Amino acid sequence: MPIGDSNNINSTGVLLSSSGFKRLALSPDSSTLHVGPGNHWGDVYNFLNNTGKSIVGGRLGVVGIPGFITGGGISFFSWKYGWSSANIASVTGVIASGEVVTATPDNDFSDLFWALRGGGNSFALITEFEMITIPAPVVTVGTTSYGTTNLTKERWLDAIYNFALYGGEDCHECTVTPSASTGTQYPNGTTYTAMKFFDGNDTAPPALSNWTSPYLNATSDTFAATTMTEWSQSGLAQFDSIHGLRNRFHVLSTYADRRALQIIHDTFFALVPIHLSSLQTYIATLTPMPISKQYFRASKVRGGDPMDLDPEDGPHIWYEMSVLYTVERDEEYVSAFLQAVDEEVKKMLAAEGIKQPKYLYLNDADKGQPVFEGYPAESVRKLKQIRHKYDPEMVFTNQMPGGWKVAHA
Predict the structure, then answer these.
(1) Phi and psi of 194, rounded to 5°?
(2) Are the C-beta atoms of 267 and 346 separated by less than 8 Å?
(3) Given a cut of 70, is residue 8 above it in pLDDT?
(4) In the prediction, which pLDDT does 2 show?
């Protein structure tokens, strides 16, 4: 959640850091893993190396854990196992009264457990997750680049649409995270890539055939059998290269519709030069993530979650729009760009009679986006009731104001 001040209080407040909560411990039968919130996913994957086990965690090792899970959490394994938050057995945390409680789907704190599976950070300070382990001794993962031509663009868009409709249903072990980037670091124009994943050892699963030659010809490709440990470590150099840059996210959602995909792509890249050309350094990226019906079905376990997405409402495509830039004074240009894309896309989709789902993925949303307004009304009512039960004086709403608060929905 790259939103200014979302994780801190003003100068009169007290900063509570969970960086010391680094516990990692397998249960005696290795069916669950106890994870402290001070870890990153890379720490978790490294701990599980050579155990034959993994967890439904972040796709990148640098990502933190508690905010990821309480926002739902998209994992490489989600197309088979659902949200990351669908794969927790218990959560331990400190509620507003100061009491340390452990919430499970079946104990006296089952309502708190449900709320923490996607309701954000209005309820407790989390001190530990107990996560369900999955078998994953070998995975096949990597990033493929396809170049910059117009033919590449159209086939890349077609591949996203077809994977949304069929790929995620035909192969629950397969995941694709496509990205298109432009900016001062891309002198040859918009570059099209895909981060591909298969849960197992197979560099040519049929469900990913549209992402390979002869349909899409690669200019570079790192898709290979490896482990989640090796994968999470391999990306560190890439993040070192952008360390210190400012970042903004904004999210849009559509049903799997080829026209909507084209409209959002074309609008995003048409507005980049209008709003961002004066920036000394920037990278603008559009990441349309195809989300299958199976993703929603797999998330229904252990009492469900506040998002309560209906499998029959899918498949969806969720669009993460991100901008990397260097200095604070550029913030107004980035804000204007993201707002312009949002408004123009909604106007054009409405003109074409293309309906959008109300749901917006919390972890990719921008400040001011109506996240909880996209949850079912009954879920929001329950979240507010649970917040009042465990925090009647709104300690976590007022003293920890960052992120999305159910009290404000």
Answers:
(1) -150, 130
(2) no
(3) no
(4) 63
CB atoms within 10 A of CB 136: 21
Compute φ and ψ for 95, nearest 5 degrees: -85, 175
**Residue written as tokens 């992120």?**
403
| pTM summary value | 0.96
Question: 24-136+377-402: which CATH topology?
Answer: 3.30.465
Does residue 5 surpass a pLDDT of 70? no
Which tokens in the block code for residue 360? 């917006």
**Alpha carbon distances (Å) from 210 to 5, 163, 166, 227, 375:** 41, 8, 11, 24, 33
| 375-403 per-position pLDDT tens digit | 999 999 999 999 999 999 999 999 888 88
Average of per-residue pLDDT values in the chain? 95
Token reading at 293:
């019906």
The per-residue pLDDT for 17 is: 86
d(CA 101, CA 124): 9
Round to whole Å and give the CA distance between 36 and 356.
37
- Where do the structural domains in the chain lie, given as residue ranges? 24-136+377-402, 139-364
- Amino acid letter, residue 133: T
- Token representation of residue 88: 């927790």
Q: Which helix (H) or strand (E) holds 230?
A: helix 228-234
DSSP 328: G
Q: CA 376: distance to chain centroid?
A: 20
Rounded Cα gap, residues 120 and 406, in angstroms: 8
Q: Strands 316-325, 24-26: parallel, antiparallel or unpaired by DSSP?
A: unpaired
CATH number of 139-364: 3.40.462.20
Q: What is the DSSP string of 41-109?
A: HHHHHHHHTTTTEEES--SSTT-BSHHHHHT----TTHHHH--GGGGEEEEEEE-TTS-EEEE-SSSTT
